[in-house]
Write a structure and sequence with these properties.
The protein contains seven helices and five strands, in the order βααβααβααβαβ. It is α/β, with parallel strands linked by helices and 150 residues long. It has a single domain, classed as Rossmann fold (3-Layer(aba) Sandwich), CATH 3.40.50.
Length: 150
């Protein structure tokens, strides 16, 4: 079984927006995932965060609306498993993420990914250096720049 990672939107976004730092590293992750060398998992919130960030790229004039539509279309066809816990577990993740948002001084949405990795007991992969450093207090957090493929 290949190693599993909870991946956040900061990594997945780099699959599509090529003017960001660490794009090459993100594409190595995507290639390893496509080849079955690693398994990527994400909470359902990622399905909303990535298109939201693509929209922000349009508003900042980094890409056009036409490009954004193409990118969102490519994203929604990415065969990434969005793990949806049962209602009880979902409530536990929300509660834990809320607590972690205070403990780690991060947004609630960042904390959802950390709580999800903690719940699944798998490493957390992020391209957000400060988030990786703070999340390391709770989970095995891996900063994309330091990620080494198996």
């Amino acid at each position: 079984m290949p190693p599993r990672f909870v991946v956040d939107s900061s990594v997945v976004l780099k699959f599509y927006l090529h003017d960001e730092d660490l794009v090459d590293r993100a594409h190595e992750v995507l290639q390893a995932y496509a080849e079955g060398r690693i398994e990527l998992l994400a909470p359902f919130v990622l399905l909303y965060e990535v298109p939201g960030s693509i929209r922000k790229a349009v508003l900042k004039k980094r890409i056009s609306w036409a490009q954004a539509h193409t990118l969102v279309g490519a994203f929604i066809t990415l065969p990434l498993p969005f793990v949806t816990p049962d209602p009880t577990t979902s409530r536990q993740v929300v509660t834990r993420a809320f607590d972690l948002s205070e403990q780690l001084n991060r947004s609630f949405y960042d904390a959802v990914f950390v709580a999800f990795a903690e719940m699944l007991d798998v490493p957390f992969l992020t391209a957000d250096g400060p988030l990786a450093r703070s999340a390391a207090a709770v989970v095995d957090a891996v900063f994309l720049e330091a990620f080494r493929l198996p």
